[in-house]
Amino acid sequence: MQNSLFADDGAGLPPVVEAAAPDPALVELAAALPSRLRFGTSSWNYPGWVGMVWKRDYPDAVLSSHGLPAYAQHPLFRTVGLDRSFYRPLSAAQYADYAAQVPEDFRFVVKAPGAVTDAWLRDSSGRGRQPNPDFLAAGPALRDFIEPVLTGLGAKAGALVFQISPLPTDWLTRIPELIARLHAMLAAIPDLRATAADAVVAVEVRDPQWLVPAFTQALRDTGATYCMGLHAKMPRIAEQIPILRALWPGPLVCRWNLNPLHGAFGYEEARRVYAHYDKLVDPDLDTRAMLARVIAGTVGAGQNAYVTLSNKAEGSSPLSVRALAETVHALQR
Questions:
Q1: Checking CA distances to 297, which of 93, 209, 228, 331 falls within 20 to 30 Å?
Q2: 50's torsion region: left (phi>0), alpha (psi -120 to 50) or beta?
Q3: How does DSSP classify residue 113?
């Protein structure tokens, strides 16, 4: 049944993923939200979203390759996390292919290659083998990330995120040196706005030791911003908000990644508990309420906001987006 459903039609045409019928309540909610606010999910290849995003069940491989146009028809989804670029640099042509699949007002949240943001060169098992000479290096960052993103996505480039991987323990004593290296890399990035008016460079970290005044100053000096990573490896949202205040005025970039209930290394547990990603299992009401206030304040002051949510945050990212959007809208009344 699935083979016949997803096979091409004999003319070599790719399978077509159909979007779920739009919920009128979501259409109304989306129309009421500020235009500078863009919600989305961390990816789009989840079969469990049937009825919310997809019209019917599709294999994840089909969704990964052909689901983006249907995803972009969801009333609340005006951005999406593009994480594939973290594992291997993408070409300008690959980015252009993604851009061609979404509406003109859609913007991407793109992760920089791990080859630039990981302190270690790793083997196939993920173990660090030796220090990475390209860690936070300007040349590779420009060649393998900034330039192909701007060339391929053009105006649809949104947040360009350097997510710095957790550092080896002995490197945590070298934070001032690493901040200087980060500063030099960010300073080499040209102004994005000539190509993409809504684009911003953002830095996300997975070690709280980065969160010192010199880190914030490096971002301010170079026109970058902080990507608020809501992840169990990092302090809760209330402890990260002061960094945003120090960078104000500026856009908001937030990636709500993992519910702290599962601990710093809880991705596999969250995957097991949330399984099909079709319901909210662990609603995080405190984070939702505080994030909604940050969003409302940001867009209310005329700044852009890019907010992506993972299934691992509460159990189902489409439902998390809806709940967060409703909370933001309630603050506007």
A1: 209
A2: beta
A3: P
Instruction: Provide the strand spans (E) within the chain.
Output: 37-41, 79-82, 107-111, 120-122, 128-131, 157-164, 200-205, 225-230, 252-256, 305-309
Closest alpha carbon to 315 in 264, 268, 258, 265? 258
Tokens of 158: 């949104």
Q: Using H for helix, E for strand and C for coil, what is the string for 225-260?
A: EEEEEECCCCCCHHHHHHHHHHHCCCCEEEEECCCH
pLDDT tens, 95-104?
A: 999 999 999 9
Q: Is the separation of the CB atoms in 87 and 43 below 8 Å?
A: no
Task: Tell me how far apart the alpha carbons of residues 232 and 282 are, in angstroms, rounded to a whole number.
Answer: 14
Give buried/exposed letters for 156-189 (b at 16+ CB in 10 A, else e): bbbbbbbbbbebeeebeeebeebbebbbebbeeb
- Asked if 71 contacts 130 with a C-beta cutoff of 8 angstroms, the reply is no
Query: Closest by alpha carbon to 111, among 181, 179, 158?
Result: 158
How many C-alpha atoms does 23 have within 13 Å on its Cβ side? 13
**What is the residue type of 319?**
L
**CA nearest neighbour of 6 among 51, 56, 74, 76:** 56
Domain range list for the chain: 17-43+226-333, 78-223
- As a whole number of angstroms, the distance between CA 310 and CA 307 comes to 10
For the packed helices 24-32 and 317-332, what is the interaxial angle rounded to 10 degrees?
50
Mind listing the pLDDT tens digit for each residue in 157-190?
A: 999 999 999 999 999 999 999 999 999 999 999 9
pTM for this prediction: 0.94
Measured CA to CA, the distance from residue 30 to residue 25 in angstroms comes to 9
